[in-house]
Amino acid sequence: MIEQPVIAIVDDEKDVRESISQWLALSGYSLRTYAGAEQALRDINADFPGIIVSDFRMPGLDGIEFLRRLKAIDSQLPVIMITGHGDIPLAVTAMKSGAYDILEKPFEPDRLTELSRRAVEARCLILENRTLKRELSDGTVLSRKLVGTSQAMQHIREEILDASQADRHVMIRGEIGTGKSTIARALHACGPRQGKKIVTVNCDAFADDELSRQLFGPLDSGQPLLDQSLGGSLCLEAIHALPPGLQARLLERIETMENRDGSLLRIISVFNQDPDDGTGSAEAVIRRDLLDRLTAFQIFLPPLRQRGEDILTLFTHFTWLFSEEYGYSPPAVTANDAAHLIQADWPGNIRQVIQVAERAVLSNRRGGYSLGTLLSTGSGDPQVETETADNGLSLRDNVDAFERMLIDHSMRRHSGSIDGVTDDISVPRRALNEKLAKFGMNRADYLK
C-alpha cells in the first residue's frame, strides 16, 4: 500500500489549481500542481505513486495528447479529466483514450473527492500487485522475501511460481505463523488477475450469521464480499472455521458460477494446519465435494522446525531489520546461541522468530543479553522448548548452518567487503569465496 498517495493536478489556471488542491488536501492526500502537461510529464513515470487530475484545454500540449502520453508511460495510471459543460465529443474521445473518468464543469467538490478516492484505491492496488509480481518473477527478490535456502523453501518457491499462473482455486496449508497470508497475496498478484481486486475474509473473525451476511448478503449497503471479488480473487482465511451451512452455500455458488462463467470466481483458501486446535486435517472439517473444488492446486508451507538450516538465516535477517529500525547494533550470535536457535521447537513459527529477534535487539542494548533466556521465557509468548526438538539435521548440516550465519552476519556488518570479512572471521579469501559459492551467497546483495 502507498503510504501517502499523490494527486497531481494539471491546469494552466492558477486559481483552479489552488482551489482543487485546497479541497483534496482536506482528505489527507499529498498534492503536486503543474501549470502545464509538459512540466508534469517530467515528473511522472511508470511507478508514479498516485493519480492525475487534468484539465482538457491547456496551451501547448492539450489534455487528449497529455492523456495519450500518460497511457504510453503506464497504461494503468488513473487519469481524471475535467471538461467544459456539454463537451460530449471530447469526453467520448477521452474515455476511448483510457481516462479513468470525466468531470464536467461546474462540478461538486464532493464528486471530485469521491472519484479521486476510488482512483487512488485502484492505483494502490495496481502498484502493490505489480511489486508482488516482480518479486515472484525475479528469483533473487523472491529469495529475499521468502527467506531461507533449505530444500523445503526452494520447493515452495517453485510451487508459488507454478500456481501463480494457474487461474484456478488454490488452497494454502500450514501452521499458524508460516506466512500463508503473504503467499495468498503473492499468488493473486502474480497471476492473470493481477491488478484486479483481492477480497480477504477471516472466517474465524465473525459469528456465523454475520459471516453469512458478509459473504453472501443481504447487506444494508454495498455488495456482499463474494460478489465484490468476482473477476479478482476471494481469499478465505481460516477456512476451517467456515460452518457446514455456509460450506454448502459456498459450494452452491461455485457450482452456479461454473455453469454460468466459472472464470469469474477464483478462491484462495488458507487452512491452519494445527493439530493442537483440532484442525490438523482439512478432510475432517471441510465437506468432500467443496474440498475437491478448493484444492485444484495446493501449497503446503512447512513449519519452521522442519527448516532447520533456515532458522539461523531468519534470525539474523530479522535482527538486522530491527537493528536498523531502532538504531542499535545487532546482537552477536555465539555457537551456544546458534545451538539454542536450531534446537528450539518454534511453535509460533516465523512470527515467533520475529518476536524473539526484536526482543534480542532491544535486550542487547542494555547488556547482559542471553538468547537462551529469551527463548525459554519470552515476554508472555508461548515458551520455546529447546530440549526436545528434533530438526532432522546432521552434525555437518548444523555446522554449515552456523558457518553460513557467521558469514552472513559479517557480510552485513562490512557491507560486502571481502577484506573486512576475512579479517573479521579469520578465514582466507579463497576459503571465503568457496563458502560463498557453497551457500549460494552473492556479495552484490550486501553492497551499499
Please characterize this protein's 3D structure:
By secondary structure, this protein is α/β, with parallel strands linked by helices. It folds into three domains: 6-128, 3-Layer(aba) Sandwich (Rossmann fold); 138-302, 3-Layer(aba) Sandwich (Rossmann fold); 305-446, no CATH class. Helices cover 51% and strands 11% of the residues. It contains 20 helices and ten strands. The chain has helices spanning 14-25, 37-41, 63-73, 88-96, 109-137, 139-145, 151-164, 180-190, 208-216, 225-228, 244-261, 282-285, 288-294, 308-326, 335-343, 349-364, 371-377, 395-413, 418-425, 429-438; strands spanning 6-10, 30-34, 50-55, 79-83, 101-104, 170-174, 198-202, 233-237, 267-272, 297-300. It has a five-stranded parallel β-sheet with strand order 2-1-3-4-5, with helices on both faces. A five-stranded parallel β-sheet has the order 7-8-9-6-10. Strand 4, helix 4 (88-96) and strand 5 form a beta-alpha-beta unit. Helix 5 (109-137) packs across helix 8 (180-190) and helix 7 packs parallel to helix 8. The longest helix has 29 residues, at 109-137. It is globular. Mean pLDDT is 83; it is low at 378-390.
